[in-house]
């Protein structure tokens, strides 16, 4: 039988302006699972996992993410089309409408926190319209114990009302959905979208301002794990490049799969208490740890199941971005608490759909700074009329949508820290080999894992020119051999069997790098600029 934790504490929401709500405070994961099904908002699939549809939105909506421009943010935030300003008055008006909408309703409230290092703990109260969104908060944030709950005082509040639709003309939003951060009021206000990722990335964005500005700590969009000797590795990368997949490694303890801070006390800590894995084409054979984490307590999003409740992970009817959230303890090998020492190795993951970057290469400190500011990956453009072309996608710090400050502020902090810690930095192409998307194939996960394991075991050695050769276009150092990986896979050019086509495409990418970097040139030193590709097509 389900064992429900008894929470005797009660809370009031009048202080937020939410009146006469039926408050469901701190329900257990089991209760929220059951309530979601009772309400017809989800189903239980054959693994015992709750499956929900997030509704109209199955991904974040970056164009509807705003930051209130106030005394705290006005001179610090890098305003533009990533950090879109919102007027304080307009926020207050919209806030009143949202809390009015939640009044008289049943609402699900959870007290939790972010940041596994006690020195950086951020107490959070999450107020949800839907039970499954509240269960997501249980999975993804850190869970206070009974003692911590007794005198819990929330610092930030997330108010999440997917059913509330803004009126763009009156409410000064772009359309009916919005996610707005208010640093003066310490509120993340989310409406018109049920996509749960907005909740976790809202707090992530807040921390990406708070930690560097007030706590001298570098926030990072990366995963992290630690080996038996206590050596930490971190993996930066944009969505779909392999942060979650590659950090979930049976031989290394998982610290976290997405958001971390690097302190001045030489530690790396997880912001979160759970993982949010992509499940598109997930297989038990390829990713057994993540597959096993999908059980009661986890939440599957936007997947399709058959009559028997068996999920077809290859089904993209609803979206490509099918997901599962689970508390980190669903993974067997984890670091408790989620804190590691200074990283020894940093991986920049990129899914290069042009298929021209080496599957693994070593970067100099200047190349590392250059690639961090660039934040390259590639997307595969729509299949309209059979045209499938890779499109380069650059996102500074491998996470621009979540970074309120100018990218060079994070890059400078990272450079300083990398120098102090003497880390090795590796660029890993988890994308295409043997040709671009449509011609080549995705790099075998088995090979990527072998390359990472070789680095972590010291089998790719230190920087020794005899063991590496420099890529003629990108200037990065490619290892000549790697245990568990066929030699020819290590050199992208040899996988193409067409030198001319290879270089043409490589130049296309190096030009895209140069074009993108122009906006950072004024802020980047000569050395960092030289960390870019060595050759361009004219
Ligand atoms: P997000 O920031 O959106 O959470 P992520 O960086 O965590 O993204 P993953 O969830 O790890 O990305 O997604 C990587 C996807 O690519 C997985 O579905 C994985 O199975 C697939 N994949 C295929 N080949 C590789 C490879 N060689 N290396 C890593 N992932 C691969
Ligand atoms: Mn991930």
UniProtKB/TrEMBL annotation:
The gene is pckA. It comes from the Bacteria. The lineage of its organism: Bacteria, Pseudomonadati, Bacteroidota, Flavobacteriia, Flavobacteriales. Involved in the gluconeogenesis. Catalyzes the conversion of oxaloacetate (OAA) to phosphoenolpyruvate (PEP) through direct phosphoryl transfer between the nucleoside triphosphate and OAA. Its EC number is 4.1.1.49. Mn(2+) binds at residues 201, 221, 258. This is Phosphoenolpyruvate carboxykinase (ATP). It catalyses: oxaloacetate + ATP = phosphoenolpyruvate + ADP + CO2. CDD domains: PEPCK_ATP. NCBIfam families: pckA, PRK09344.1-2, PRK09344.1-3. Pathway: Carbohydrate biosynthesis; gluconeogenesis. PANTHER family: PHOSPHOENOLPYRUVATE CARBOXYKINASE (ATP) (PTHR30031:SF0), PHOSPHOENOLPYRUVATE CARBOXYKINASE ATP (PTHR30031). Substrate binds at residues 60, 195, 201, 323. GO terms for molecular function: phosphoenolpyruvate carboxykinase (ATP) activity. ATP binds at residues 201, 221, 237-245, 287, 323, 448. Its cofactor is Mn(2+). Its main location: cytoplasm. It is found in: Cytoplasm. Pfam families: PEPCK_ATP (PF01293). It comes from Psychroserpens ponticola. Belongs to the phosphoenolpyruvate carboxykinase (ATP) family. Keywords: ATP-binding, Cytoplasm, Decarboxylase, Gluconeogenesis, Lyase, Manganese, Metal-binding, Nucleotide-binding.
């Amino acid at each position: 039988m389900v064992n429900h934790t008894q929470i005797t504490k009660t809370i009031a929401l009048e202080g937020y302006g939410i009146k006469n709500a039926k408050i469901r405070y701190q329900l257990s994961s089991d209760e929220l699972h059951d309530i979601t099904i009772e309400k017809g908002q989800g189903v239980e699939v054959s693994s015992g996992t709750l499956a929900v549809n997030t509704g109209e939105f199955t991904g974040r909506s970056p164009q509807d993410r705003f930051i209130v421009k106030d005394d705290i943010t006005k001179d610090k935030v890098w305003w533009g089309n990533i950090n879109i300003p919102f007027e304080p008055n307009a926020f207050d008006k919209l806030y009143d409408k949202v809390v009015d909408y939640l009044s008289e309703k049943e609402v699900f409230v959870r007290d939790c926190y972010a940041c596994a290092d006690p020195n950086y703990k951020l107490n959070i109260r999450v107020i949800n319209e839907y039970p499954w969104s509240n269960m997501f908060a249980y999975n993804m944030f850190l869970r206070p114990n009974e003692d911590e709950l007794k005198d819990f005082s929330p610092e930030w509040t997330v108010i999440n009302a997917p059913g509330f639709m803004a009126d763009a003309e009156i409410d000064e939003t772009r359309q009916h959905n919005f996610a707005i951060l208010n640093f003066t009021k310490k509120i993340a206000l989310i409406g018109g979208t049920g996509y749960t990722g907005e909740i976790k990335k809202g707090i992530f964005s807040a921390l990406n301002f708070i930690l560097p500005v007030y706590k001298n700590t570098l926030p990072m969009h990366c995963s992290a794990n630690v080996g038996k000797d206590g050596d930490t590795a971190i993996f930066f990368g944009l969505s779909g490049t392999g942060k979650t997949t590659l950090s979930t490694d049976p031989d290394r303890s998982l610290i976290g799969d997405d958001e971390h801070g690097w302190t001045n006390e030489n530690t790396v800590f997880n912001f979160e208490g759970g993982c949010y894995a992509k499940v598109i084409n997930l297989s038990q054979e390829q990713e057994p740890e993540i597959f096993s984490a999908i059980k009661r307590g986890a939440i599957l999003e936007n997947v399709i199941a058959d009559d028997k409740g068996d999920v077809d992970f290859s089904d993209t009817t609803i979206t490509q971005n099918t997901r599962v959230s689970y508390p980190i303890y669903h993974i067997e090998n984890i670091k408790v608490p989620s804190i590691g020492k200074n990283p020894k190795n940093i991986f920049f993951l990129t899914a290069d759909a042009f298929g021209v970057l080496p599957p693994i290469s070593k970067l100099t400190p200047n190349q590392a700074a250059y690639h961090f500011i660039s934040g390259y990956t590639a997307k595969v453009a729509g299949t309209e009329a059979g045209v499938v072309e890779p499109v380069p996608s650059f996102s500074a710090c491998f996470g621009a949508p979540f970074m309120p400050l100018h990218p060079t502020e994070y890059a400078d902090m990272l450079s300083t820290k990398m120098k102090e810690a003497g880390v090795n930095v590796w660029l890993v192409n988890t994308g295409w080999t043997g040709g671009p998307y449509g011609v080549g194939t995705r790099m075998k996960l088995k090979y990527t894992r072998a390359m990472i394991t070789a680095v972590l075991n010291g089998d790719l050695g230190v920087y020794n020119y005899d063991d590496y050769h420099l890529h003629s276009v990108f200037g990065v150092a490619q290892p000549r051999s790697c245990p568990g990986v066929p030699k020819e896979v290590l050199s992208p050019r040899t996988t193409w069997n067409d030198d001319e086509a290879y270089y043409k495409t490589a130049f296309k990418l190096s030009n895209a790098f140069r074009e993108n970097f122009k906006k950072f040139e004024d802020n980047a030193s000569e050395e960092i600029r030289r960390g870019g590709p060595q050759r361009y097509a004219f």
